[in-house]
UniProtKB/TrEMBL annotation:
Localization terms from the record: Cytoplasm
Enzymatic reactions: N(6)-carboxybiotinyl-L-lysyl-[protein] + acetyl-CoA = N(6)-biotinyl-L-lysyl-[protein] + malonyl-CoA
One Gene Ontology MF term: acetyl-CoA carboxylase activity
InterPro entries associated with the record: AcCoA_carboxyl_beta (IPR034733), Acetyl_CoA_COase_Trfase_b_su (IPR000438), ClpP/crotonase-like_dom_sf (IPR029045), COA_CT_N (IPR011762)
Family designation: Belongs to the AccD/PCCB family.
Gene (UniProt): accD_1
Pathway it works in: Lipid metabolism; malonyl-CoA biosynthesis; malonyl-CoA from acetyl-CoA: step 1/1
Pfam families assigned to the protein according to its UniProt record, in alphabetical order: Carboxyl_trans (PF01039)
Keyword entries, A-Z: ATP-binding, Cytoplasm, Fatty acid biosynthesis, Fatty acid metabolism, Lipid biosynthesis, Lipid metabolism, Metal-binding, Nucleotide-binding, Transferase, Zinc, Zinc-finger
Full protein name: Acetyl-coenzyme A carboxylase carboxyl transferase subunit beta
């Protein structure tokens, strides 16, 4: 199988691209990766145990076309929703892990996603484990209306309780991370990391320009712009992500 780079159009074999952590060898563009690939990159082999995988999405508002869209997306992605949560090991250190996947309705946040992430923090609090979440999202899931927006409050409350008890939360922002995720648990980590050249913000660039009536920089809402302005702690390439996370986890254990 061959994969075309969305940025420069360079075509590579999937196996070769995987060896480069799904980073284009020609233009260094970071391609989106699925949850299983992310798990393989970050965790020790065969140590990931999924939690709350029995949760399924409903259609609380009977939103027109939502059930059909869910059916097609579930069939295409083989996922129950836009997030997978569980416990695993990183170089022998036990952690709780959450990974959002933009291939499932742009990783928008609905009732199931919010519940699973909130329960992950509760579980980590009970087991005294650190939490790492790889964030990507287009924001709230409009098909679930107000129920979607409530999820950000729910997750923030669970995270607050976890933090009060001394838990370590590392947030990793990937491309793209927008909307309520960036406004809530995305930037609420004790340590906030980001992948290179990731688009990160709340509202989109055009919306911001229309509101403030000014031209904004070309690199606005990129991970490089954010670190230059003190919004994140570090930009970490995929090939070194596991080793960096290991160092941070070990430092926390020593403390």
């Amino acid at each position: 199988m061959f994969i075309k780079c969305p940025k420069c159009g360079f075509v590579q074999e999937k196996n070769k691209l995987a060896k480069y952590y799904y980073v284009c060898s020609k233009c260094n563009f970071y391609q989106s990766i699925d949850i299983n690939s992310r798990i393989d990159m970050i965790t020790d082999k065969n140590t990931f145990h999924e939690l709350d995988n029995e949760f399924t999405i409903s259609d609380p508002l009977n939103f027109d076309g939502y059930k059909e869209k869910l059916h097609c997306t579930i069939k295409k992605t083989k996922l129950n929703d836009a997030v997978v949560v569980g416990e695993s090991y990183i170089n022998g250190i036990k952690i709780c892990l959450g990974i959002l996947d933009s291939s499932f309705m742009m990783a928008t946040i609905g009732a199931v996603v919010g519940e699973k992430i909130a329960r992950l923090f509760d579980y980590a609090n009970e087991k005294n484990l650190p939490v790492i979440i790889f964030c990507t999202s287009g924001g709230a899931r409009l098909q679930e209306g107000l129920i979607s927006f409530v999820q950000f409050l729910k997750v923030s409350c669970a995270l607050s309780n976890f933090s009060k008890n001394g838990g370590l939360y590392i947030s990793v922002l990937t491309n793209p991370t927008f909307g309520g995720v960036s406004a809530s648990f995305g930037f609420s980590g004790d340590i906030v990391l980001a992948e290179p050249n990731a688009n990160i913000g709340f509202a989109g660039k055009r919306v911001v320009e229309q509101i403030i009536k000014e031209k904004i920089p070309d690199n606005f809402q990129t991970s490089e712009y954010l670190i230059d302005n003190g919004f994140i702690d570090a930009i970490v390439p995929r090939k070194t992500m596991k080793s960096v996370l290991t160092k941070l986890l070990k430092y926390h254990i020593k403390q």
